Amino acid sequence: MSNKKDPASETLKTDANPAAKLWGGRFSEATDTFVERFTASVMFDQRMALEDIQGSLAHAQMLSEVGVLTADEFRQIEGGLKDIAGEIQAGEFPWSVALEDVHMNIEARLTDRIGATGKKLHTGRSRNDQVATDIRLWLRNRIDAIGSELTRLQTGLVDLAEREAETIMPGFTHLQSAQPVTFGHHLLAWNEMLTRDYERLMDCRKRVNRSPLGAAALAGTSYPIDRARTAELLGFDAPTENSLDSVSDRDFAIEFCAFAALLLTHLSRASEELVLWTSSQFDFIDLPDRFCTGSSIMPQKKNPDVPELVRGKTGRVNGHLIALLTLMKSQPLAYNKDNQEDKEPLFDAADTALDCLRAFADMVPALKAKKENMLAAAARGFSTATDLADYLVRKGVAFRDAHEIVGNSVAFAIEKDCDLADLSLEELQKFSDVIGDDVFEVLTLEGSVAARDHVGGTAPAQVRAACARAKELITAR
């Protein structure tokens, strides 16, 4: 049996004395030891410690400005909280399970350091509005970090698309060769998904950036607080409007997780393509070795672990969204202990989204296109068949008739084991006498992509123009 101690047991202290609880006055017996651990959240909510201190500093400053605290009391509280922040950043803070959560741990430590004045900090607020404020502050910081990584990824992606504006590859439907496109055009499709993700993230930030501080337990407070002032001090756009709603809803966290689920879904689709393209069956791209691993038994293997892992983590984030939706669906107003379960899914969804974006932002600019392989693949599968049909329509053939003519031509080419472009003019004219020498201009891959010369099309000139527009949008953020 191992004698190794759980590190948490050394850093998280317990205390069975009911009088040690900040709310213990009404209780006559100690909390059951298991219940104490079961109901505590300090194991995970301590990561909001600096946001908790930030909120407390704003609250204390406001209380001093409205005369609830004296200037000296505020200075004591301010100095004590800043010292505690230093302890936390240095890893020297004595976290205690007995004090349940990050808020009570910090408040108790403040009282230890500055005495009875520390007990005045909680005047005019509750842990209900305190935790709602902390989560919003924490999430706002995370949103900003995720937005920066999204921008970095899109910058690298658009740069790569511009470099590959003329690289021809097969476009697929049903994972079968459909029409030729350029690699740059395909990459810009990824960028469009990420652009919408960024817009959703910034839209979510607007609703996160409201201050619930001052809503207190559920009904507000009788103290002469100034909620607009604390909102201003904390960088919120405004206070929330209703005290009941302020402390009880977590729709902003659900909205963020919905964003994260969509983001990871988009990254997962890109990951799936990267996995396919690096396989020997496709062999379209090369991933640098630093983003891959090998096999313990097969020395020839180079596994695309980064995109595979991003693809796998998508299910995890989707699960967090469902967890939060389920958490909220049956809660009556106002705050309920259920909401303690909001943090771990939110924290992990944010961490996972940020990590996946960092991995992609590092990896995507380093992709190497195997242009010859892409071009050869585009030449297979009759990807210019639609161009032949369009050619016939321009010659006056009804589209449905053109469709049949091309279908017959493809069947003939399959029998000959060649592509449409390899058929002779005489062979093509067996299916329609309107076909002339100029048909081979549309049957080339280069001619096919160049013909899609409109906004949103795959023509190299349009890809470069789309890259320029994308760069303008990114720069304007």
From TrEMBL:
Argininosuccinate lyase C-terminal domain boundaries: 382-450
Gene3D superfamilies: Fumarase/aspartase (C-terminal domain), Fumarase/aspartase (Central domain), Fumarase/aspartase (N-terminal domain)
Superkingdom to which the source organism belongs: Bacteria
Reaction it catalyzes: 2-(N(omega)-L-arginino)succinate = fumarate + L-arginine
PROSITE patterns membership: FUMARATE_LYASES
Compartment list: Cytoplasm
Record's keyword annotation contains Amino-acid biosynthesis: yes
Pathway(s): Amino-acid biosynthesis; L-arginine biosynthesis; L-arginine from L-ornithine and carbamoyl phosphate: step 3/3
Top-level EC class as recorded in UniProt: lyase
Main location: cytoplasm
GO molecular function ontology, one term from the record: lyase activity
Key words, A-Z: Amino-acid biosynthesis, Arginine biosynthesis, Cytoplasm, Lyase
EC number(s) reported in the record: 4.3.2.1
Keyword Cytoplasm annotated: yes
Xref: InterPro entries: Arg_succ_lyase_C (IPR029419), Argininosuccinate_lyase (IPR009049), Fumarase/histidase_N (IPR024083), Fumarate_lyase_CS (IPR020557), Fumarate_lyase_fam (IPR000362), Fumarate_lyase_N (IPR022761), L-Aspartase-like (IPR008948)
Transmembrane regions: none
Annotated Fumarate lyase N-terminal domain residues: 25-319
PANTHER family in the record: ARGININOSUCCINATE LYASE
NCBIfam families reported for this sequence: argH
Family: In the N-terminal section; belongs to the lyase 1 family. Argininosuccinate lyase subfamily. Belongs to the lyase 1 family. Argininosuccinate lyase subfamily.
The protein's name: Argininosuccinate lyase
Organism: Microbulbifer flavimaris
